[in-house]
Amino acid sequence: MDRAWPRKAIGYHHDLCKAVGIRQRPRILDATAGLGRDAFIFAKLDCDVTLLERHPLLASQLIQAWNEFDNLTLKEHLHIYHQDALTRCSTFFSCDT
């Protein structure tokens, strides 16, 4: 993950958090993880985030970044899977958002 990103402060006032309506510590499913930017914002706000990425290259980059990440608190909140969302959701636990 780009350590310089995001440039503006992360908090409950962030546009993404307002759109989702985060008030407590929800469990969030990011079914199209991409580079993990949205998941990082939610993890910084103490949310448990499960990231699903079906593209092998993006999934491997996410996993590699997670392995190199030095913030253990954030690592506990991020769960990364290289899997298609439709396949995973058939056996997935409930999420709030």
Question: How does the major sheet shape up?
Answer: 3 strands, parallel
Overall geometric form: globular
Average pLDDT number: 77
Counted beta strands: 3
**Radius of gyration based on Cα positions:** 13 Å
Order of helices and strands: HEHEHHEH
Structural class: alpha/beta
How would the blueprint of this fold be written?
Elements: H1 15-20, E1 27-30, H2 37-44, E2 48-53, H3 56-68, H4 72-77, E3 78-82, H5 85-89
Structure characterization notes:
With 97 residues, the chain is of the alpha/beta class. Helix content is 39%, strand content 15%. It has 5 helices and 3 strands, in the order αβαβααβα. The protein has helices at 15-20, 37-44, 56-68, 72-77, 85-89, and strands spanning 27-30, 48-53, 78-82. It has a 3-stranded parallel β-sheet with strand order 1-2-3. 22% of the residues are buried.
